[in-house]
Automatic annotation (TrEMBL):
<keyword id="KW-0547">Nucleotide-binding</keyword>
<protein>
    <recommendedName>
        <fullName>non-specific serine/threonine protein kinase</fullName>
        <ecNumber>2.7.11.1</ecNumber>
    </recommendedName>
</protein>
<dbReference type="InterPro" id="IPR011009">
    <property type="entry name" value="Kinase-like_dom_sf"/>
</dbReference>
<keyword id="KW-0597">Phosphoprotein</keyword>
<dbReference type="GO" id="GO:0005524">
    <property type="term" value="F:ATP binding"/>
</dbReference>
<dbReference type="InterPro" id="IPR000719">
    <property type="entry name" value="Prot_kinase_dom"/>
</dbReference>
<keyword id="KW-0067">ATP-binding</keyword>
<dbReference type="InterPro" id="IPR008271">
    <property type="entry name" value="Ser/Thr_kinase_AS"/>
</dbReference>
<dbReference type="Pfam" id="PF00069">
    <property type="entry name" value="Pkinase"/>
</dbReference>
<keyword id="KW-0808">Transferase</keyword>
<dbReference type="GO" id="GO:0004674">
    <property type="term" value="F:protein serine/threonine kinase activity"/>
</dbReference>
<dbReference type="GO" id="GO:0007010">
    <property type="term" value="P:cytoskeleton organization"/>
</dbReference>
<keyword id="KW-0723">Serine/threonine-protein kinase</keyword>
<comment type="similarity">
    <text>Belongs to the protein kinase superfamily. AGC Ser/Thr protein kinase family.</text>
</comment>
<keyword id="KW-0418">Kinase</keyword>
<feature type="domain" description="Protein kinase">
    <location>
        <begin position="92"/>
        <end position="404"/>
    </location>
</feature>
Amino acid sequence: MAPRTATTEEEILTIFPQDFSDLDLSFTSSSASTSSFATSARSSLSLSLPSFSSFSSSLIKPLPHHSSDPRWSAVRAAANLSPNGALQLRHLKLLRYLGSGNLARVFLCRLRGFDDDDPNLEFALKVVDLNAASSAVEDRVSHVRAEARALAGLDHPFLPTLYARLDASHYACFLIDYCPGGDLHSLLLRCPGHRLPLPAARFYAAEVLLVLEYLHALGFVYRDLKPENVLLRADGHVMLSDFDICFHSDVAPALHRLPRRRKSTSGMSNCLSLLQGKHEGVDLEFVAEPESAFSRACVGTHEYLAPEIASGVGHGNGVDWWAFGVFVYELIYGRTPFKGGSKEATLRNILVGELKFPNGSAEYSRRASAAAAKDLISRLLERDPGRRMGCVKGAAEIKRHRFFRGVQWPLIRNIMPPVVVGQTAGATVAAVGKFSRERRRLLAWKWSSRSSNQQKRLFINEEIS
Ligand SMILES: Nc1ncnc2c1ncn2[C@@H]1O[C@H](COP(=O)(O)OP(=O)(O)OP(=O)(O)O)[C@@H](O)[C@H]1O
């Protein structure tokens, strides 16, 4: 898959033209010539037809979990320098082009007048040109609105924080967290066989699952899951990006009764309780899944489209769980399951093709967790949404699957992410640097204890200093 060429300084000036009075054009760049990220050729498709509305600039209020982030105080301080107290594009210094998709171009930037060496003050600026010719203005406006709505309401460690919304002329700009680790798709392309070692695949899948759980609990159906949209933060944890085709629906949280389970371990107390007819198990489970979500829009990325989107019958929350199945498959096997020679062939495979798993990969076929992965993927890639894992009981059901056995869900954001061959040096060093030697040893053991010898080499261990 050919990476897109990086935008040059001239192109950046084209994005912000000379008559754009709000912007200081003194762009300084030492690295505009090459982007460190390969952008994806698998762009999202969108055929929805929403309505037009006008925009206004705004500084987003810090949400509780992020209120102590130094970026907030910097953004506020910069805004206070302005006569109207609002952040403007001239407060930002664009440093480098990061990538682009169908809708937007994204730049690394910093606030002018702040410490130039402080990596904590770097941001990503996502710029959408509403006049661009590639799609109808109405479509672009609707996507910007969807993205703005989602970003403004999110507050999760694996999702971007929206620091400011800047609208000027026909540009809509979002100031969000910068992810120096690039995206998972670029990482896959640099890995042997374009796939991740199983423990790393499990780690990224687990973090993405938590994000989908959170989005669904808020009523958002994401619709654009793919490795290109999973960015890696400086600490190596994920950040799901790109909310322009998500949609919102009501969600009615419920407590679901779980089937009672017998204790699987042996022991005197266990025997006694069985003799007494007692069973152990959690009885109730909290589920917040937007089951009533419904849309007929044909949006998403071909290889990741659920059958109900491909057939046009209308879709709901289940499309994210289908896409999650494709995502886990791609992380593990290095390709998507239904990809055909053309987009039409891919769609046909999604609708009627057989789900096949590559064989012959000794590393995967030997392992019990590979069997677990296959089972999980098969349950997610169930064509009938009514029978698809996650559609009714949400992420809670998926988290319980044996593929994720041993994942410490509440602590995962504090676990050191796996370091994979092919990861950009910056992200690796940042991730490693955050942890003391002792902690690295402990965490390395956790990650590598179940890995094969070959995989052990792929993960961080005591030798890394
Ligand atoms: N916060 C960020 N930090 C670093 N790079 C980013 C960030 N956000 C986006 N990028 C880069 O910019 C590229 C395009 O961004 P994005 O996917 O948000 O654009 P888009 O036009 O909305 O995409 P799509 O065509 O999927 O709708 C990404 O693939 C990534 O390489």
